[in-house]
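Researcher: Go.
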Amino acid sequence: MTPSQSKYAGWPIHVLIWAVVLVMPLFVTSPDRPLMTGTEYIRFLVVPLSFMIVFYVNYLYLINRLLTRHRLAMFIVVNVLLVAAVMIAVHLLFRYVLPPDIHRPPRERPIMDTLMFFIRNALMYFLVVGASVAVRMTGGWYRAEAARKELEHRRSEAELQNLRSQINPHFLFNTLNNIYSLIQIDTVRAQAAVHDLSHLLRYVLYGSDRQSVPLDDEVHFIQEYVDLMRLRLPRHVKVDVSLPERSGVMTAPLMFIALVENAFKHGVSNDRPSYVSIRIALEDGALVCETRNSYFPKSGGTDRSGSGIGLSNLSRRLEMLYPGQYRFEYGLNGEEYRTYLRIPL
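Model: Structure:
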């Protein structure tokens, strides 16, 4: 529940419990105990109604004003006075307003019996005070827990949105860097690349705002990105791409672009044989993305592709979207760099 929902969810339970308490004597009968008369029922109502007064004075006022503000001594004193006042009022009602027999005055009891009678009644009222504290504190804990979970959810959503927004400039930096290199080689192809980039950016800007997207859209985006990268690759670079056919399944948006970018960023050399291999497939109810590439790490002076936040952002997004459900491995294996990502559908 949200805090606003949990605040009012308990009141129907209160009404139901008190309704059962107040109505039950009307249905409890036995051969030697017939149904209550109207006067008897009114006398019965006095005690539960007095319990209700003690309960709700604490529940609605004293606990919040005194107990939760660490004024325990004042809370005890006020409750002692409250219980004493209620007990005296109930005693006067039974003695002078609702006596069991108006034609027979109540008999006098020994002082010890009267004292024990008041002590037992006082204990009952203080148990009601304890029940009020227990119910109020439990409800407060549930509301605080609901508020904490809602705050955590909002914080996670804000952090996830922030990570998604960081994908846009990171992706843009890498792609613009490729087009910049292409301008020096072929102006016409560079113009076509800018046109293709607009399609990619439209997906990045609008697709990343959704919780999930069709896998077909994600695959099409990856294919367009690879085609854009091919425009400026030297002839000695081998690119192998394997993508799934139309599937109709849904997935989180932009989960693979960081891996693909990373493969092109570090897998291509301008003067040495190099390769990039990308495989995306459906396997046993999961989505797998695997990349392999030759390894030509970019130095700080020559790398203008962004801030290097792609893989770290991806790791954080995976932890938020698929906690304990994904498998993500990456690193250098000899002279080859590999990444492996497996997420549930």
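Model: Residues 111-183 form the longest helix (73 residues).
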